[in-house]
Amino acid sequence: MTTGALSGITVLDLSRLLPGPWCTMMLADHGARVIALENPRYASQGAFPDLINRNKEHMGLDLKSDTGRAIFLKLAARADVIVEGFRPGVTDRLGVGYDHVKAVNPGIVYCSITGYGQTGPLRDTPGHDINYLSAAGALDLMGSREAPHVPGLQVADIAGGSLSAVSGILLALFHRERTGRGQFIDISITDGTLALMHLALNISQETGKEPARCDTLLSHRYAFYNTYETADGKFVALGALEPKFWVAFCRATGLERFEALQFDDNRREEIIQAVGDLIKSKSLAHWSERFNAMDLCWSPVSSLSEAMDSRLFREREMVVESRNRNGKPAKTIGVPVKLSETPGSIRTAPFSFGKNTDTLLTELGYTPEEIQTFKEAGVT
């Protein structure tokens, strides 16, 4: 029996790719019943099936057909949350938009995730993570002085989109708990990405200067917050922002002469070079042994495989053994939000396409004959 914090909450997921399905995975991990719906004519598994479709059910359903639309609205009448990621206006044209669902379920929490929001000059513009980072001014702060660098993970999609959607859904459910009323949630991935820029904006307002790549307080400008290569080709990340950590680092490395020069703009390049030369003289193992014995803000720069094998994430249950949709053993990423009374969990492997269609239709009261008719007509 599911006992997560969202046990008893039913979510219909019409989204694709990463932002929506990542959001609904978080809800599912914490006990919500998540039913993903996808047109059987496009029998894809989405872009990331084995990673973000655990703990979910799946139904093949053609929303362009009258019968498919009727089935969806029967599901929606029983649901608590709907998540969709189409361009603005698509669900309304299909007859499954917020107003259509609200008519059969006034308490519905309806979350739409788009690149640029339901309003504004870019509402109909397509995009991906790189575009949302660009529009929000975030990409301009990533990379070398010569050019922006695209990050190797989807910052905008997840931090700007998925997490904003999770927050919005939980806020709306809390509001419904008090008032009985549902509402529409307009999540713009670009809005959420701009919301990550508070520190950069604050620094800009204080200095009167436009933030520049590799030249802000926390981006390679100073030695105390930087990355350095070791003798064996590994890298360490130093985060000695507070003076006490910088002093401790200087004393641990014999660089006491720089203790009082942490923020000295006239000598910062000299200090970066000195620290870099020193770190490059010894192996990562050497620095690990020395730094781990002290109270320092430092870490080795781990690869993904190293992170997945680390004691930290194993003991934190962030790397767990699971199964892929073919039933084979596979490592997966665990549940990051740790609740003491209602912990999240990984209960089922990722779905296969249409796996739960018959069961869900039976729950809605359809007979085996009707279900077979739906299949023959391509509705399910």
Automatic annotation (TrEMBL):
<dbReference type="InterPro" id="IPR044855">
    <property type="entry name" value="CoA-Trfase_III_dom3_sf"/>
</dbReference>
<dbReference type="GO" id="GO:0016740">
    <property type="term" value="F:transferase activity"/>
</dbReference>
<dbReference type="Pfam" id="PF02515">
    <property type="entry name" value="CoA_transf_3"/>
</dbReference>
<keyword id="KW-0808">Transferase</keyword>
<dbReference type="InterPro" id="IPR050509">
    <property type="entry name" value="CoA-transferase_III"/>
</dbReference>
<protein>
    <submittedName>
        <fullName>Coa-transferase family iii</fullName>
    </submittedName>
</protein>
<dbReference type="InterPro" id="IPR023606">
    <property type="entry name" value="CoA-Trfase_III_dom_1_sf"/>
</dbReference>
<dbReference type="InterPro" id="IPR003673">
    <property type="entry name" value="CoA-Trfase_fam_III"/>
</dbReference>
